[in-house]
Design a protein that fits this description.
heterodimer; A: about 725 residues; 7-stranded mixed beta sheet; 5-stranded mixed beta sheet; 21 helices; 27 strands; B: alpha+beta; globular
C-alpha cells in the first residue's frame, strides 16, 4: 500500500481531488513546498504554488491546513474562520485538516510546530487571514482574465466571483485549477473589521458533528495495515535500571509475537493490546537502583522544606525589600504549598509508529510536532524528509501532549520489531509516567506601613524547572521563566519587591500543565494578597483596586465579577465569596467564587463561579466562553481534589479511582462575561484557570474564617483547619 | 468465532468469549466511537447499551454480550434528540469522552423522559470529562428531554 493510500485510510477523506494550493507563509513567501505537496504535484499533473494553508478543489471544497493541534480549544474552527473570512468562502464548503509536519508549517513566532502557550489563534490569525486574502485576489484575477474584464470590476460573494455589469459568475471550484497559473500577489489588502462575516461571531465548530457521531479520529483510532500492539514494562522507581528479565512466560502468552528490550524497559509486542498487556504481566523483570528509592509523600514535603532553607537566585529586586520589611509597622509571613498534579486527559497517551529501513511514519495526538520529528530522526537516523508525521485529533492535551516519551517508546519498539506498532499506555501508565505540574513551596512576606498600605512584598519559591529540559534556550541566568511567572510580573504596583527562586532538584518529572507556573504561583500570590487585605481591615476588592493602577483592565474585570456576583450582599451563614485575578498569556481574567463550608464534614461546596475575561479581540465568542467554562471546572478540580501521591520511589497514583477529578455534581453554575474590545489579541486556553483556585480559597476564608494554604482543599484539610481555628479561639 | 449483534447488525468476530468487549468492539470490529479511558469502569468513556442498559464495555467480555442487543454511538441515529442537543449546545471540546456521555444520557432519558436537574446530575455523575464540558452536557440533556429524549 502506498503512503498516499495509507494516509487516506487514516484520514477517512478522499484526497483524490485536484485544484489550487495556495502559497502563503507566515512572513515572507513563497517557502519550499512540503513533501506532501510535491507528492500531489506529481500525482495531479497540475502546476502548484508551494506552501499550503489552503487547498481548493473543483467540487468547491476549501480545505484549510492546520499547523496547530486541535485538543478541544476550537483553534481549528477559529483559524478556518479567519481564512474563510478573507477568502470570502462559503462556510458550508469549508473543511479543516491537520497539516503535514515540515518547515513550512512551523509557528512563525516560535520557529517550531507546537501548540502551547495559548498561542494557536494568536500566532496564526494573521497568516491565515493573509492566506485567505491571497486566495481571493487570485480567484478574482482568474475570473477577470476568463471574462476579459478589469479585475477591479469583479467582486466575491460566498465562494463565487461575480461581475455585476455582465451578470457573470463562477464558483471558486470552477476557477481554482486555472487560478494556480496566476502569480502569487506579494501584498494583499485585508478586510476592515466592519466587513467581517465570520470573525467575531459564534460560528459552530467544524469538529462538533464528527465528535458527536463518534467519527473523530483520535490517536487510538489509527489503524495501519499489518499493525501490532505494544505494551512496555517500566520500573516503578524513578531512575531504576533493568537488572534482569525472564521472557519465557510472556513469549508463550497467546497472541504475543515478540519481547524486545529497549532503553526504556521491556516491550511486549502482540496481535492485540490485550495480549500485549497479558504478556507484560507474565514478564518477570527485576530492576535495580533508582534516584530516590524511598521517595514518598513525606519525603517530597521534606525535600521542599529542605530546599527552602537554601539560598536561591534573585529573579526580581525592586526597591529594597530587606530595609522595607525592617521598617514596616506590620509584617506578615505565610507558607503556601502546592502538590504535583496530573494532566489526566481522557485519551491515554499513545502513538502508532512504522519504522522501516528507509522511512518512518508516525501517527499521534501531539502538541509538539517538531519534537516528534526530532525523536524520529534521532532514533532512526533518517533525514527529516523520510519522516512522515500525522497529527490526529487529541483527546485532551493541557500541555501533557507536548511530551514525546510515548513517541520515543513507540519508535524504538517499531524499529526493534520492524513492523508498525500501536503503542498504548494504560490509564495507570498514563498517571505514573506523566510530566506533572510541579509541586512547590512558597514563603511569602509582606510589610505594611502605618496607614495599612502594602509597601513591600517578598516571595521565595521552591520548584523544579521545566524549560531546562524542554526548551533550555529560554532559561536566563539559571532562572527558568516558568518558575517565577505570576510572581515577578504580578499586577499590583509595589515600591519594594523581591523574588527568589530555589531550583528544586528532584527525580519527579515536571512539564507544562495548563497555565504552567501561573497555576501554582497565582494561588500563593492572590491568596496572600487577600490575607494582607483582611489584615488591614480593608475590603479585598477595594484593596486590590487600589493597587492596580498599572492594570486598568484587571480592575475593570474585578469590578465586573463583583457586580455580577453580588459582592458585598448578604449570604446565608457558612457561605462566603472570594475574588482573584491574573494577567497571563496576553489576557486578563477575574474569578469570583461563592462557596459554603460544611463544618461537620469539611466539605466545600462551590455554589457559583463568575468569570470575567478580556482577551482583546475575540474571533469566536462561544469558543472563548467554552474555554473559560472548561478552565473554571479544571481549576475547581485542582483546587478541591487533585494530588499525585508518591510511594516506594515512584508514583502511587494509578487511576481515576485514586485521582478523582471534578464530576458533574460538584460543578456550580458558571457565569462567564467576555469583555470584547479591540486590544491586541490574547491567549484563551490557559489564562482562565489560575485565579479560580485562590478565588475559592479566599471564599473559604470569608465563609469559615480558615485560611487554606495548601492544595487540594479536601475535607480532611478543611476539618483540620477548622479544629485548629477552634482551639485557638 | 463469536457473533455479536451491534446496532442491529450481526458481526462475526474471531475472538475468545473471554476477550474484553471494549477492545473487540474497537479493534476487531472497528467501531471506534466507543473509547478507552481507564480500563477500570470508572470514567465512562467506553459506555455502550446492552439491551438498552448503559454499561461500561471495558468491564465486560465479548461472551457477556452474546445474544444481547449492543448499541454503540454509531447506532444512535443522527436525528436523536441527544445528538441534536449536543450539537446545538456545542458540547464537545476535545470530544473524547462525549460518546460515553451521550450513551449514558440516551439510556437515562429513555427511562426518565422528564427528569429533574438532580436526577440528570445523579445519572451523569460518574462519567468524567477533563475539558469541563459538564455545564453544557447538563444543558444539552435538558434540551434533549424537552425534545423527547425518550425516542
Amino acid at each position: 500500500m502506498s503512503r498516499a493510500m495509507k494516509r487516506r485510510e487514516f484520514l477517512k477523506v478522499s484526497l483524490a481531488g485536484t485544484g489550487l494550493v495556495l502559497a502563503v507563509s507566515a512572513g515572507a513567501f513563497p517557502v519550499d513546498a512540503s513533501s506532501e505537496v510535491k507528492e500531489k504535484v506529481v500525482t495531479s499533473g497540475i502546476t502548484w504554488i508551494p506552501n499550503v494553508w489552503i487547498r481548493m478543489t473543483p467540487d468547491n471544497v476549501v480545505t484549510f491546513l492546520m499547523n496547530k493541534s486541535e485538543m478541544g480549544q476550537g483553534t481549528w474552527t477559529s483559524l478556518a474562520m479567519a481564512a474563510a473570512d478573507e477568502l470570502d468562502a462559503d462556510w458550508k464548503d469549508v473543511r479543516v485538516e491537520a497539516s503535514p509536519v515540515t518547515d513550512a508549517y512551523k509557528d512563525p513566532l516560535f520557529g517550531m510546530q507546537i501548540t502551547g502557550g495559548s498561542t494557536g489563534v494568536r500566532h496564526m490569525y494573521d497568516p491565515m487571514r493573509n492566506a485567505g486574502a491571497v486566495g481571493r485576489e487570485m480567484l478574482i484575477k482568474t475570473a477577470a482574465r476568463e471574462w476579459k474584464v478589469p479585475a477591479g470590476e469583479c467582486w466575491t460573494d460566498k465562494g463565487k466571483v461575480v461581475h455585476e455589469k455582465t451578470g457573470k459568475s463562477m464558483t471558486y471550484g470552477e476557477l481554482c485549477v486555472k487560478a494556480a497559473q496566476i502569480p502569487v500577489p506579494q501584498k494583499v489588502q485585508l478586510k476592515r473589521r466592519e466587513n467581517f462575516r465570520f470573525i467575531g461571531t459564534s460560528v459552530p465548530r467544524l469538529d462538533t458533528p464528527g465528535k458527536v457521531n463518534g467519527m473523530g479520529v483520535f490517536g487510538l483510532d489509527v489503524f495501519v495495515p499489518g499493525m501490532l500492539y505494544s505494551a512496555l514494562a517500566r520500573p516503578s522507581v524513578f531512575g531504576a535500571k533493568l537488572a534482569s528479565v525472564e521472557k519465557d512466560a510472556a513469549e508463550k502468552t497467546p497472541g504475543v509475537r515478540q519481547v524486545v528490550i529497549i532503553p526504556d524497559g521491556v516491550a511486549v509486542v502482540a496481535d492485540t493490546i490485550e495480549a500485549a498487556w497479558k504478556g507484560r504481566s507474565a514478564l518477570k523483570v527485576t530492576w535495580q537502583g533508582g534516584d530516590l528509592p524511598n521517595l514518598d509523600d513525606a519525603a517530597v514535603e521534606r525535600m521542599l522544606a529542605e530546599h527552602m532553607k537554601k539560598k536561591g537566585l534573585v529573579a526580581k529586586n525592586v526597591g529594597n525589600a530587606e530595609e522595607a520589611l525592617k521598617k514596616a509597622s506590620r509584617r506578615m509571613e505565610a507558607m503556601y504549598s502546592l502538590p504535583y498534579i496530573a494532566h489526566a486527559q481522557m485519551e491515554p497517551q499513545n502513538c502508532t509508529a512504522d519504522v522501516r529501513k528507509e522511512t518512518c511514519e508516525i501517527w499521534c495526538p501531539t502538541q509538539f510536532q517538531t519534537a516528534v520529528l526530532g525523536v524520529a530522526m534521532k532514533e532512526t537516523g533518517l533525514p527529516a524528509d523520510k519522516v512522515n508525521i500525522h497529527t490526529t485529533q487529541l483527546g485532551g492535551g493541557f500541555g501533557g501532549r507536548a511530551e514525546v516519551k510515548v513517541v520515543t517508546e513507540a519508535v524504538r519498539i517499531s524499529k526493534a520489531v520492524g513492523k508498525p506498532v500501536k503503542h498504548i499506555w494504560s490509564r495507570p501508565e498514563d498517571f505514573k509516567n506523566d510530566f506533572y505540574r510541579p509541586g512547590s513551596l512558597h514563603r511569602m512576606e509582606a510589610g505594611l506601613d502605618g496607614n495599612g498600605q502594602l509597601m513591600v512584598w517578598r516571595h521565595k519559591v521552591v520548584v523544579s524547572p521545566i524549560m531546562e529540559r524542554v526548551l533550555p534556550a529560554l532559561v536566563k541566568d539559571g532562572i527558568d521563566p516558568t518558575t517565577i511567572e505570576g510572581i515577578v510580573d504580578m499586577e499590583y504596583s509595589l515600591a519594594n519587591q523581591h523574588t527568589e527562586y530555589v531550583r528544586l532538584d528532584s527525580p519527579i518529572p515536571v512539564g507544562f500543565w495548563r497555565s504552567v507556573g501561573n497555576s501554582g504561583n497565582t494561588f500563593a500570590v492572590e491568596s496572600f494578597i487577600d490575607e494582607v487585605a483582611h489584615a488591614t481591615g480593608k475590603d479585598p476588592l477595594a484593596f486590590r483596586l487600589g493597587m492596580l493602577k498599572d492594570h486598568p483592565r484587571a480592575a475593570r474585570l474585578l469590578k465586573k465579577v463583583a457586580e455580577a456576583g453580588g459582592w458585598g450582599t448578604p449570604l446565608p451563614k457558612g457561605c462566603g465569596r472570594g475574588i482573584a485575578q491574573r494577567f497571563c498569556f496576553g489576557s486578563y481574567t477575574a474569578q469570583l467564587a461563592e462557596v459554603s463550608v460544611d463544618k461537620e464534614t469539611g466539605v466545600i461546596t462551590v455554589r457559583k463561579m463568575v468569570a470575567a475575561f478580556d482577551c482583546g479581540q475575540v474571533v469566536n465568542p462561544d469558543s472563548v466562553v467554552a474555554q473559560i467554562e472548561g478552565a473554571t471546572v479544571m481549576g475547581l478540580s485542582t483546587a478541591l481534589k487533585e494530588k499525585i501521591t508518591f510511594a516506594k520511589g515512584g508514583v502511587a497514583t494509578s487511576n481515576f479511582s485514586d485521582y478523582e477529578i471534578l464530576t458533574m455534581s460538584e460543578v456550580p453554575e458558571i457565569e462567564v462575561h467576555i469583555i470584547t474590545n479591540n486590544d491586541k489579541m490574547g491567549g484563551v486556553g490557559e489564562p482562565g484557570l489560575p485565579p479560580v483556585i485562590p478565588a475559592v480559597a479566599n471564599a473559604v476564608f470569608a465563609a469559615a474564617g480558615i485560611r487554606l494554604r495548601s492544595l487540594p482543599m479536601s475535607p480532611d484539610v478543611v476539618r483540620k483547619a477548622l479544629a485548629q481555628a477552634a482551639s485557638k479561639a | 468465532m463469536l457473533e455479536l449483534i451491534i446496532n442491529g447488525n450481526r458481526h462475526k468476530a474471531d475472538v475468545d468469549p473471554g476477550a474484553n468487549l471494549l477492545w473487540v468492539i474497537r479493534e476487531h470490529l472497528r467501531l471506534l466511537g466507543t473509547k478507552f479511558g481507564c480500563g477500570e469502569g470508572v470514567c465512562g468513556a467506553c459506555t455502550i447499551h446492552l439491551d438498552g442498559e448503559a454499561v461500561r464495555s471495558c468491564q465486560l467480555t465479548a461472551g457477556d454480550a452474546v445474544g444481547k442487543a449492543i448499541t454503540t454511538i454509531e447506532g444512535i441515529p443522527q436525528d436523536h434528540p441527544v445528538k441534536k442537543a449536543w450539537i446545538e449546545e456545542q458540547v464537545p471540546q476535545c470530544g473524547y469522552c462525549q460518546p460515553g456521555q451521550m450513551m449514558e444520557a440516551a439510556a437515562f432519558l429513555a427511562k426518565n423522559s422528564h427528569p429533574t436537574q438532580e436526577e440528570i446530575v445523579q445519572a451523569m455523575d460518574d462519567v468524567l470529562c477533563r475539558c469541563g464540558t459538564y455545564p453544557r452536557i447538563l444543558k444539552a440533556i435538558k434540551k434533549a428531554a424537552l425534545a423527547g429524549g425518550a425516542k
